[in-house]
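Consider this:
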Amino acid sequence: RKRGIPLPGNTVEELMSYISYDTPLTLPKFLEKFNYYMPAIAGDREAVKRIAYEFVETKAKEGVSYVEVRYSPHLLANSGVTPIPWGQAEGDLTPDEVVQLVNQGLKDGERDFHIKARSILCCMRHMPSWSPEVVELCKKYQNDSVVAVDLAGDETLKVEDYSEHKKAYEVCGISFYKEITRKWFSCALQAVYVLKAERVGHGYHVVEDPELYKELLKIKMHFEVCPWSSYLTGACSPDFTKHPVIQFKKDRANYSLNTDDPLIFNSTIDKDYGIVKEHMGFTEEEFKRVNINAAQSSFLPEKEKQELLNKLYEAYGMVPNAS
C-alpha cells in the first residue's frame, strides 16, 4: 500500500491465503506465488533491509544458532539489471546495493537476536547474463556476510549450454569439466562435476542412480534436505515413509535438515523436524548427527566453523568428531 502496489487481500491473513499452500502443486503453480508479493518488495530499500532483519528474528525464535539464506540480488533490484524483474519501472536500486542492504539487515539482526546469519548469492539458470556480476558481488562481499555462490532456478536448463555460467564460476576459482562422458546428466551431476559444487540442494533422485549415489557418498557430498518442500513441490513421493532421506539416514550420508521457501510453504524448521520424527523414525541422536553435518558443511571460515561446532558439541554433550 505504501508504494501503491496492489496486493491480493486486505490483511496479512488474506494475503497469506494466496501465497501459502499445504497441498502439492505443480512447479508453474508454485512459481506463480512469487508474483503476488515480489513486486511490492523489489526495488524498495526499506523493504529489502527489513526483510533481512526480520528473517534473522524469525530464525532466532525457531531456536536456530546459525543460518545461511540464499537469494538473487538481481530479482530484488530495479536498476542495472536487464530485464528489470517483476514488471517494475526502472528505479535506482542496483544488485550491488541490494547486497549491501541485505548484509546490513542480517548484521542488525545478529546484533539484536544473538544468532549468526550469512547469505548465499544466487545465479539464476534462466539468466546466465547475470552470473558474472553475481560472482563478483560474492567476491566483493565475502568478508561482509556473503559466504557462497549458488545456482538456482529451472533445472531443465543445463549449465553447460550457457557459457556465462561457466565463465562466472571460473572467475570465482571453480574449474569445469569440459567433457561429460557419462550417459546420464542429472542436475546433481551438473552441480558436482561441472560446477564443482561443495553442497547439493535437495538431490533426492541420486538414490535412483546407484553409481552416482555411491560416488557422492564416497566423497561425502553434502545434501540439503527439505522434507516439507519436497512434498509440496512433488519432488518426492507424497508417502513420507518412502522419502529418500530414509536411505540417506541408513547410509549415514552427509546431509542436513532445512526449511525451503518458508513464506510460501508456511513452515519452520520444527515442521521439518516433526515430519522426519513422525514418519521416518528419526531419533535425537540422528538429529544431533545431521546438525553436526550441517555445521561441518557450512560455508563459514574455519575459525568460525569450529566455534559453531564447539557450541553444538557442548550443547549435545558430545565429544568432538563423535558424529
